[in-house]
Amino acid sequence: MKTEDLKLVVKEKYSEIANQSKTQNKSSCCGSTGCCSTVDYAVFSEGYEKLEGYHPDADLGLGCGIPTEFAQIQKGDTVVDLGSGAGNDCFVARALAGETGHVIGIDMTEAMIEKARSNAAKLSFNNVEFRFGDIENMPVESNKADVVISNCVLNLVPDKNKAFSEIFRILKPGAHLSVSDIVLRGELPEKIKQAAEMYAGCVSGALQKDDYLRIMEENGLVSIKIQKEKATPIPDEILSEYLTQQEINLYKQSGAGIFSITVYAEKPIA
Asked: What are the C-alpha distances in Å from 104 to residues 62, 125, 144?
């Protein structure tokens, strides 16, 4: 599929999800009506309920980690969240950055921006804002962020090289990122790689882990390290939407795997 077609698939699926509750996402098995439009909730998501700053209305169960857990956010920091959804990670980041901090959420889905702004208004937050925009061309000035976070979103960006180039641009010198994402080891079956709905579900758009880290390095980021890594097998009921039982068995025997990782990296001071 062409880049713009892939982006349209993602926007359509996440617009559906924006209008559902977390309970609805969970009960539909993969995050949106029709089952398997996205696999985030059923396979990857982690619990936020005990975190300071957590607000249930902002939690749609769409992540594959908790990037704020490792982000080293300090009081007064400017934090930029890429693919901010309904605001879940932004509100947790705000609790860490405090009243003197500033949190900017970026999302390319209008319905998510609308929901996030509504949530922030209900909470009377005046230091959290949500901007409509594309991660490949962010509506953020250069050298703005002390910390960049993202949760299971960068794998959805067709041009990941451009995405990390933009992250480098908006980070202040000496600032850092902490992003949770999906990566691969080995090759996914071709039918999975070509399935647009699985792309929207954060699977077929994922890179090999080594390639993911290499792109970060090629775009100038340093001190790259994996803070957390966990295998995330896709349930058979999801695979069976795309593969025969024989193909599922061959895939499992291949040694290929899907992992959620949380990665830290810095922009050099010089």
From this structure: 18, 12, 10
Stronger pLDDT, 204 or 8, i.e. the higher one:
8
Using 50, 70 and 90 to split pLDDT, how confident is the model at 204?
Answer: low
Within a domain: 237: no
Beta-carbon contacts of 125 under 8 Å, excluding residues fewer than 6 positions away, are: 91, 94
Question: Which pLDDT belongs to residue 131?
Answer: 98
In angstroms, the CA 90 to CA 129 distance is 9
> Quick one: how far is CA 54 from the chain centroid?
17
Has residue 236 been placed in a domain? no
Enter the DSSP assignment of 43: I
pLDDT (0 to 100) of residue 45: 57
Q: Which of 106, 56, 61, 52 is nearest to 83 (CA)?
A: 106
Q: Decide which of 10 and 124 is more confident.
A: 124
At 177, which CATH number?
3.40.50.150
Residue appearing with tokens 């202040």: 172
Give me the number of domains the chain comprises: 1
10 inside domain: yes
| Helices 88-97 and 110-122: angle between axes, nearest 10 degrees | 40
Our measurement of the distance from residue 206's CA atom to the centroid of its chain's CA atoms, rounded to an integer in Å, reads 11
Domain of residue 87 covers 3-231+256-266
Name the band, by pLDDT with cuts 50, 70 and 90, for residue 28. Answer: very low
| Rounded Cα–Cα distance for residues 130 and 222 (Å) | 28
Contact 49, 114 (CB under 8 A): no
Phi-psi region of 15 (alpha: psi -120 to 50; beta: other; left: phi over 0): alpha
The answer to the question of residue 197 being in a domain is yes
Q: Alpha-carbon distance 48 to 53, whole Å?
A: 9
- Contact between 147 and 79 under an 8 Å Cβ cutoff? The reply is yes
Please state the pTM of the whole predicted model.
0.84
